[in-house]
Specification:
Layout (H helix, E strand, L loop, with lengths): L5 H19 L2 E8 L6 H11 L4 E5 L12 H7 L3 H12 L2 E6 L1 E2 L2 E2 L1 H13 L8 E7 L7 H10 L6 E8 L2 H4 E2 L2 E2 L2 H17 L1
Helix pairs in contact: 1-4, 4-5
């Protein structure tokens, strides 16, 4: 198995994104979770939803590859913007669409996502760059991360967000298995949102 550094993976991804759009006319989307859990259920949902988008190349990102110090004004003034915040923002700017599934911690964003969000917003207040976004959330509970989904829907539009589809998956353990949604009704709901997302690319 070949192991590459984050620097290599970052520059390779930017190369692929740029060349796909310029030379191959291939759409490219990114998928990631607002979580850094190694077993993230939101990452599983994001990867599944992205796999349903036809005719595109998909890159699934892991926030663990973009570690950042906790945002603080004093830190920004003394050390500037961390490289990983700029790298993630560059990827957002280079992609054709975003599939994002948010983890909900205490009724809000997970700390790792909020921290990334804050750092990127210091570079560009319209950080989502009007890229079509399929915004989702899931949780083990019956509300399926509905609270954090509502927060993001109310905020992202002010930050360059272009949410063209949204989806909440309740009771993850009961409705998701072997890399896919097992509840037919819920899966059909997601397929409708994926179709809207695909048409917007």
């Amino acid at each position: 198995m070949e192991i590459y550094s984050l620097e290599y993976k970052y520059f390779y991804l930017i190369f692929v994104l740029t060349n796909n759009k310029k030379n191959l006319n291939m759409k490219h989307i990114i998928a990631f979770a607002g979580s850094n859990s190694s077993t993230s259920i939101n990452k599983q949902l994001a990867a599944y939803a992205a796999s349903l988008v036809s005719g595109v190349e998909v890159t699934v990102l892991d926030l663990n590859d973009f570690k950042l110090p906790l945002y603080g004004m004093d830190l920004e003034l003394s050390d500037g913007i961390p490289d990983n915040a700029q790298k993630f923002l560059d990827i957002v700017k280079s992609t054709d669409g975003i599939v994002l599934s948010l983890a909900e911690h205490n009724g809000a964003y997970a700390t790792v996502f909020k921290n990334l969000f804050d750092w990127m917003s210091r570079i560009d207040g319209k950080l989502w760059n009007d890229k079509p976004m399929l915004l989702m959330a899931t949780s083990p509970g019956a509300r399926g991360g509905a609270t954090v989904l509502e927060i993001a829907q109310g905020r992202f539009g002010y930050m360059g967000g272009n949410i063209v589809g949204s989806f909440s998956l309740p009771s993850f353990d009961d409705n998701f298995s072997d890399g896919k949604i097992t509840n037919e009704e819920l899966n059909n709901q997601l397929l409708e949102e994926v179709e809207q997302f695909t048409e917007s690319l």
